[in-house]
Amino acid sequence: MKENPLPLRDKKTDSGPLEEKQSAHSLKDKTGLFKWSGPLLLILSFALMTLLVYIGSRPKTYNLHVSDASPYDIEAPRSIVNYAETHRRATEAAALVPNKMTQSQEVSDRSLGRTRSFLEIVSASRKQLYRLQNDGPDEGDYRPSNSEVTAAATGLLAEISEKLEKEPDLQLILDILQMSNERFAVFSNNVRSSADVIMRQSLDELSIGDSIREEVETIYKNESFYRNDKNLAIQLLGVLLEPNVIFNQVATENARQDAFNNVQQNPIMINRGTRIVSEGDIITDETYALLMGLNLIDAKSIDYQILGGQALLLLILYSLAIIYLRFAQPQLLGFNREMLTLVISLLIPMAFSAYLGQSMQLSPPVYFSSVLISAYFGFETSLVMSALLIVAVMPMVNFNPAFLLVAILGCAVAALFTQNITRQDNFAKLILAISCVNFMSSAAYSFMQRTTAASFGVAVASSVLSGASSVIAAIGLMPLFEMIFNTVSPLRLIELSQPGQPLMRRLFVEAPGTSQHSMMVANLADTAAEAVGANAMICRVGAYYHDIGKLENPLMFTENQQGYNPHDYLTPEESTRIITRHPEDSYKLGKRLNLPMPVLRIALEHHGSTVLQYFYHKAKAEAEREGRPDPNPDLYRYHTPLPSSRESAIVMLADSTEAAVKSSGCTNLKEAEEVMRNVLKIKNEQNQFKNSGLSYADVEKIMQAFLQVYAGHFHERIKYPDADSSRDNQ
After folding, report:
1. To the nearest whole percent, how much of the chain has pLDDT over 90?
2. Are 583 and 605 a contacting pair, CB within 8 Å?
3. How far apart are CA 724 and CA 706, in angstroms?
């Protein structure tokens, strides 16, 4: 093997000044206060937000006591349950519940037994009186005198009164005794049948008489003879039968409790804005309880119940935010400039909301955060954080649903219009868009609620002014955020894309091949991003700086070599170690020079975990010649994160495509497309796009966009299926 003329940095010993600085910085990260700075920032911001929410949600209080004459007109700042009135109505509802009665089988059996006994006693008396031998319809031979019948009736009445504890009318007994045998048999059957039917029902004192009358009339309606006995049967059953329902104390108490609970579960509400005290009114115990419940009495103390509830709400919101950031924006977690930017962009509208929320409930400037977060961290993060911020502000506006509606729509528009701003004049469109959507949403809510003209004017004016002023403030503070926190905004990206940037000049001078490569990658990535709706400016700037790590050792990369290739003197393992360092070197150098995080992420992720095919196949060939087994492909793999955004994935494809097309010497679109498809196939087989959010349709659009660029590069036109041949040759 030839002697290597270029000294190489040893992986373990010669780390270089950048690595030494990074190691020292990493050591600092793991020790002392810096280790806890991230959690400390979250704890401090949580405490501050909790304090702001508590202060902002406290209404104006009054120094009043029971029996005082109020010098104020006091309205309810929020809806509240009128517990005193609710309890009073619940008590009245319970009192109106009637006693609950249940049917007693014992009473029913007693009435039926009494009926049977009466008929048996009467039947026995009739046998003696008429000297009957049986109960058949035949009449006896003996005809008693009136005095005998009367004596028998009197005795019978005494016997019935003693045995049955009922005393029917004497005339009723006389009429029954004077019946013929056949007539008495029909009468007895009708009375028994009626009693059986009647006592199957649940009857009280008021309903038993009607039931007896209806049933007897029904039976005698079909009777051909003896219809005049109907009244006798009604009179007799009225004596013998008794109500068969009894008072059920348990059921009654349960019914009254149910009525009481039903009112309690649907309490009497005092709606927000209802006047509860007028000037000159005497403060009663009930009124004072209402004022206390609304926190309108100056108690000069902290309401720990409300404070605890607000802290719990914010804890939930903070947890959701951290979970989201952990999966979607993990680089933000910890103590860094990006996290400070995010926290401050949320704290500023919280502070203003604490001051404005109670008096003008549509004025909290939550749109400020939407604009800043969308500009610096993307559309999705802006939507999530804005939604959490809106929920956090809700206690300050007394949970006004109008604010929820207006704020959600306004923040969505703010995030949507901010994400692709590339020129300063677009800010005017952003201000106009938010003002318009706030006007329309607040007007729509006012119309649906049929508010007064004065309320309509206040709602529309406060929402429009809040939206416009929030955007203006966010735009004005962007340069300050960029200067202090090194965040990335559209204007910052425009500045970084200028050719006169020191790092781009250095790349052009020290690694001209890499510089030309980066320019071509930028053109490819920009066009592809436009095709799939990604952030084209992020892609372009990320492509400009994605290979700045090659400045550490530019001659180790093919595009910067001029006839001499140091890798001819190195083993495939050594070459792989050198080549695979450049994404991390790009990240470290960019971080040291304060490049924005989206650009740094592209620099770190643009190779993902792909395998260096050239050196891997070179190692396989050497192993085959020496009779060794095939090497482990993981030894020839980049160990950097997979693309975590569409922008990173687009730059990965553009970078690999540009390198492959150039190295293959393609001179026409057909050859270029074959190379691109092969690059895509390799990336897809190695699962490089699984975290990027790209779809197969997006990838196809990206391929077509690349061909558009190469059509100009090869001075060709793309041949479309529906184009005629004359146009193809133009």
Report:
1. 16
2. yes
3. 23
Report d(CA 572, CA 614) in Å as an integer: 9
Q: Which residues contact 250 (CB under 8 A, 6 or more apart)?
A: none
Nearest Cα neighbor of 237 from 201, 260, 210 is: 210
Neighbouring C-alpha atoms within 13 Å toward the C-beta of 451: 18
Q: pLDDT (tens digit, 9 = 90+) per residue, 468-482? A: 999 999 888 887 777
pLDDT of 486 above 90: no
Structure tokens at 262: 């039903």
pLDDT at 252 over 80: yes
Using 50, 70 and 90 to split pLDDT, how confident is the model at 3? very low
pLDDT higher at 445 or 554: 445
Sign of CA dihedral 712, 718, 724, 725: positive
Q: How many whole angstroms separate alpha carbon 683 and alpha carbon 195? A: 94
Distance from first CA to last CA of the chain, Å, rounded? 54
Q: Give me 460's structure tokens.
A: 């529309």
| pLDDT for 321 | 92
* Alpha-carbon distances of 729 from 264, 345, 382, 704, 712, rounded to whole Å: 85, 56, 49, 20, 15
Cα separation, 85 vs 92, whole angstroms: 11
Tokens of 446: 């006012």
**Residue 559, Cβ neighbours under 10 Å: how many?**
19
* Residue 421: strand pairing partners: none
Q: How many CB atoms lie within 10 A of CB 650?
A: 36
Summary mean pLDDT of the chain? 81
Q: Is 101 helix (H, G, I), strand (E, B) or coil?
A: strand
List, for residues 97-144, the tens digit of each pLDDT value.
888 888 888 888 998 998 999 899 888 888 888 876 555 445 555 778
d(CA 486, CA 631): 44
Task: State how far the Cα of 206 lies from the Cα of 409, in Å rounded to an integer.
Answer: 65
Query: 196 CB contacts (<8 Å, ≥6 apart)?
Result: 112
Q: Residue 102: helix, strand or coil by DSSP?
A: strand
Helix (H, G, I), strand (E, B) or coil at 277: strand
Strands 80-81 and 101-103: unpaired
Measured distance CA(136)–CA(441) in Å, rounded = 94
pLDDT tens digits along 555-575? 878 777 777 778 777 888 888
Instruction: Say if CB 494 and CB 479 are below 8 A apart.
Output: no
Between CA 414 and CA 426 the distance in angstroms is: 12
How many other CB atoms are there within 10 angstroms of residue 695's CB atom? 12
Residue 420, SS3 per DSSP = coil
Inter-residue contact 177 to 125 (CB < 8 Å): yes
Amino acid at 387: A
Closest listed residue to residue 646, CA positions, set 699, 687, 586:
699
CA distance 390 to 410: 11
| Burial bucket for residue 609 (CB in 10 Å: 0-12, 13-18, 19+) | middle
**203 torsion bin: left (phi>0), alpha (psi -120 to 50), beta (else):** beta
- Structure tokens that stand for 542 in this block: 């990320």
